[in-house]
Amino acid sequence: MTRTTNARWGMRLLVLSLALLSLGRVGWNAQVRADEPAKELTDEERGRLEKQTAELNQQAFQLYQDRKYAARLRKAVWVPIAAALGEGVDIVYVCPDGPLSALPWSALPGDRLGSVLLEDYAFAVVPGGPSLLDQLTAPAPTSRGPGLLLAVGGVRYDRDDNKAGKPWPALPATVKERAGVVAEARKLPHAPEIVERSGADADVPRLLADLPKARWAHLATHGFFAAPESKEREHLFRPDDFLLGVGAERRGAAARNPLTLSGLVLAGANQPIDADTGVLTGEALAGLDLDGMDLAVLSACQTGLGEAAAGEGVFGLQRAFHIGGAKNVVASLWSVDDAATAALMNLFYYHLWEKNEPPLTALHHAQLELYRNPQGVPALARGRGAADWDETVQAVTKAPADPKETPKRPAAVKDWAAFVLSGAGK
What we know:
The chain is of the alpha/beta class. The chain folds into two domains: 1-22 and 53-124, no CATH class; 135-422, Rossmann fold. The protein contains 14 helices and 13 strands. α1 (7-21) crosses α2 (43-85), α4 (173-186) runs parallel beside α10 and α10 crosses α11.
């Protein structure tokens, strides 16, 4: 589905969609013994209680507002689609435009009170209708070898120890994330060849050589989208990169090709040099031969964002990988807590490789299980090899007695809904 919005309506959609991220639960935990005599509150205690009450009232009001906005967003963008779906549909492909490209569709309110669309549908975004049709109608691939897994994590963004004023901090959790993906791959009956890149070795020249050979690529590093007035734009571009001519023709490099505004941050990016800026742009990725790549997973923040071109969708990392030939790309719409990311990724690869599920099904199951079982995040984040891994996976992957019953304490939207799959998901 493509939906074009004007600027005013687009801003309303963005404001409404923010409500999805802050939906939570308000609780009050107080214990009073029946046999305990009431006591007079001191002024300090009374002031503290009044402050807590005011905060609780504000939270309750915000929750009401968030749910109201989420309901309005559902009515605006989902109800018209749902009316055309008919019975028996459980996968929805969306070809969004403008602000809708940043919408977590699976987090929209569902048909049942308190539910979300994740409980009933798997969503995938696609760069365009013809590309989806080509993938859905393509013949089954011939037998292939195990292929190559490229796993990147623990990138060193500094060339020296001076970190002052540098835009990209280290991501220590990605070391364990990379190791978890590799451990899962090695359990396969026919394990792929594995190339790991970390530290100073995770640089632009090496990835330019590695990516065309990879069947799977897990890239746990910063992604960027150089939006107007962002620190990324200030760090990476000069003002004249965005110049327009007298007739509004695109003169600057960034103005000519919006794929230069997004990319992957690699080794040395905090101190770029002429020979290696440490940044692999979407433009460079689009020029690679990625026809053999079944899946690219971009697990760092905002890798699903890009420059919106009215009527043409979004030009960002996902589009760049598809132009290069990658079939499926998993990316994120916002920054996610390290533990929640690790838990989701570990579940995703468990379903993808151990259960042999297609990428879209694997991501949907992983998100649904995290949504239903937030208490399992710490154990799932520790990954395979942890003492409680098998027990936790068995518990969270067990089908609920009533699949239509909404969990009483689901995980927060911000912890599971950021990751979206682009492609047919096969």
